Amino acid sequence: MRILLVEDEQRLSDALVYILNKHNILVDVASDGIAGQDMAETDIYDVIVLDRMLPGKEGIDILRCLRANRMTTPIIFLTAKDAVESRVEGLEAGADDYLVKPFSTEEFIARVRALGRRSTNKFIGDQLRIASLTFDPLRCEVICGNTLIKLTLREAQLLELFMRNYGQVLTREQILERVWGLESNVEMNSVDIYIYYLRKKLIQDGGVTIHTIRGVGYCLKEEQHASKG
Predict the structure, then answer these.
(1) Does domain 123-222 fall into CATH 1.10.760.10?
(2) β-pair partners for 106
(3) Measured distance CA(47)–CA(50) in Å, rounded
(4) Segment 6-55, tens digit of pLDDT
(5) For helices 153-164 and 189-201, what crossing angle results, to 10°?
(6) For domain 2-119, is the CATH number 1.10.10.60?
(7) Count of alpha carbons within 13 Å of 205, Cβ hemisphere only?
């Protein structure tokens, strides 16, 4: 899962990035409202964490713009504005959740993960399941049939992206942005290399495979078995 954190308080931002990364959640950060809206409009994030009081453009205005543009990405407000009127205003503007500072880091992580689950119906608890493939993003483990396979963090991030977008073709550019980030200097062939690594590990009978769509990108879908007879 990749989230966008729009927060101008540097110490809090650094702390949240550390906590989220510790839970295998990728984070891109914007420290002002204008940059935050620009990044949000790329539509590559599973969840957006948005402060209300930001330099450049306030969070409530960013939220209204995103919803006016029909963006459905789950958004949680993270703010010191704790009045009932402020909460109602945020939720009615289109926020999916509202968390007041100071807050428990455990509750923050739980709320972010809950919002992330809304983008897919393939979650079973904290796991993703398709066909005979069961993936635990917290442990970086996948079960193919009856075989438990350990993944590296990058492989796990890649598999999560494919499973959340099961049956959809993802371009190499989209994969690079979602897994490595907008500011990454990683070469495009890293996508092909890590897909090769992941395919080798998923060779067990999980019922799905990563297909190459020539000239476009990749797609996770069910394996096609030749009929017998």
Answers:
(1) no
(2) none
(3) 10
(4) 999 999 999 999 999 888 888 999 999 999 999 999 888 889 999 999 99
(5) 90
(6) no
(7) 3
Give me the DSSP letters along the chain: -EEEEE---HHHHHHHHHHHHHTT-EEEEESSHHHHHHHHTT---SEEEE-SS-SSS-HHHHHHHHHHTT----EEEEES---HHHHHHHHHTT-SEEEESS--HHHHHHHHHHHHHTT-S-EETTEEEETTEEEETTTTEEEETTEEEE--HHHHHHHHHHHHTTT--EEHHHHHHHHH-TT----THHHHHHHHHHHHHTTSS-SEEEEEETTTEEEEEE--PPPP-
CA-wise closest residue to 123 among 68, 163, 159, 66 = 163
Q: Are 191 and 172 in contact (CB under 8 A)?
A: yes
Residues 117-169 have pLDDT tens digits of 765 545 555 688 888 888 888 888 998 878 899 999 889 989 989 988 888 99
pTM: 0.70
In the chain, CATH 1.10.10.10 sits at 123-222
Cα–Cα dist 36/52, whole Å: 12
| CATH 3.40.50.2300 segments of the chain | 2-119
Please, which residues bridge with residue 3 across strands?
A: 27, 47
For the stretch 28-31, contacts whose Cβ atoms lie closer than 8 Å and that sit 24 or more positions apart, written own/partner, are 28/2, 28/3, 28/4, 28/181, 28/182, 28/183, 29/4, 29/5, 30/4, 30/5, 30/6, 31/6, 31/7, 31/55
